[in-house]
């Protein structure tokens, strides 16, 4: 009898072991997953872009004439006062040196002009004599007519002769002025740089057009410049703006006066606001060789001046521009959603298993998306779902240390 009981116990124990092995061999292993608890929060979508600070009213000062720009009387950072501070000096260009042929031609032109002036002066002398004779003849005839000795017709002829003489005299005087001008022009052709060496020709002074500081100087030392050459720039560094280079497709989506956060400038985040989108875009080629339409967008600081007083003209900053903002949105990570037919779905954890749930999505940013229907606050969804997941699949939450 004891022997029979022992056999029964051993048989049951063996069956239990075999059953356990079969269960372990054929049971479905739970899938380790990362779970996210659905909750409500503020959803903000931003356009991230690099920007550069610039003075709002920048004055670029150029040479008004061609000449020699003198050594700059100001330095970068100097304070200037509108209408008072001299910021640049330009000496007018002196004539160049004459070669032998040019000098001979100019000397010949001077002699020719002198001869023409002498001829004009001789003609004027003849015209003066003719005028004096015509005037005396007219007066004599006028006296004779008053006495009744000469006829009126003779008086009219003498009067006409006087008028002709006066016109000839005026012509002669005009020719003298013309000849004198030609002589001056010919003599000017003989002037060269050596004639004015050491005379200290007067310089053109350029005065600061606005209050501010000198931002940069193109021409520090003395050098020749052409009219219109940029010499320096002046502006108020406390009146800064930010210019960001955006894709035109991103820029048109931005709301008017939208807010932006300024980062990566060397200090704590600052607040800014969009002022305007420039009206003209431009075509640029990206690093990948793709043509893009880009446009400048201008922002103003809304943070107090003392918070960004260390920024200056041309400093690099990074902007997070608010494209959209949704308060109290039901959010899930973008990496928890996947396509299901024509819509979207997530895997929701129910106990130690999952089920797929169709969801309706709304606005999104780079990390989260708004759920309009299909989930409620407190639901737990699987992040990064893989192909092994299906309805009813057992799961175990991955533990991180």
Question: What does this protein look like?
Answer:
- The chain is α+β, with helices and mostly antiparallel strands.
- The protein has helices spanning 2-26, 100-147, 152-188, 248-251; strands spanning 31-37, 39-55, 59-62, 67-69, 79-80, 86-92, 204-207, 212-217, 223-225, 230-235, 240-247, 259-263, 270-277, 282-285, 291-301, 316-333, 338-340, 343-350, 353-364, 368-373, 380-383, 395-397.
- The chain has a six-stranded antiparallel barrel with strand order 2-11-15-13-12-16. It has a four-stranded antiparallel beta sheet with strand order 3-10-8-5, with no helix packed on it. A four-stranded antiparallel beta sheet has the order 7-6-4-9, with no helix packed on it.
- Helix 2 runs antiparallel to helix 3.
- The longest helix is centred in the N-terminal third of the chain and has 48 residues, at 100-147.
- The radius of gyration is 48 Å and the shape is rod-shaped.
- The two termini are 57 Å apart.
- The relative contact order is 0.20.
- Residues 196-200 have low confidence and may be disordered.
Question: What's this model, at a glance?
Answer:
The chain has four helices and 22 strands. It is an alpha+beta fold.
Main attributes of the structure:
rod-shaped; 4-stranded antiparallel sheet; 401 residues; 6-stranded antiparallel barrel; 4 helices; alpha+beta; 28% helix
Element layout with pairings:
Elements (H helix, E strand, L loop, with lengths): L1 H25 L4 E7 L1 E17 L3 E4 L4 E3 L9 E2 L5 E7 L7 H48 L4 H37 L15 E4 L4 E6 L5 E3 L4 E6 L4 E8 H4 L7 E5 L6 E8 L4 E4 L5 E11 L14 E18 L4 E3 L2 E8 L2 E12 L3 E6 L6 E4 L11 E3 L4
Parallel strand pairs: 1-22
Antiparallel strand pairs: 1-21, 2-11, 2-16, 3-10, 4-6, 4-9, 5-8, 6-7, 8-10, 11-15, 12-13, 12-16, 13-15, 14-15, 16-20, 17-18, 18-19, 19-20
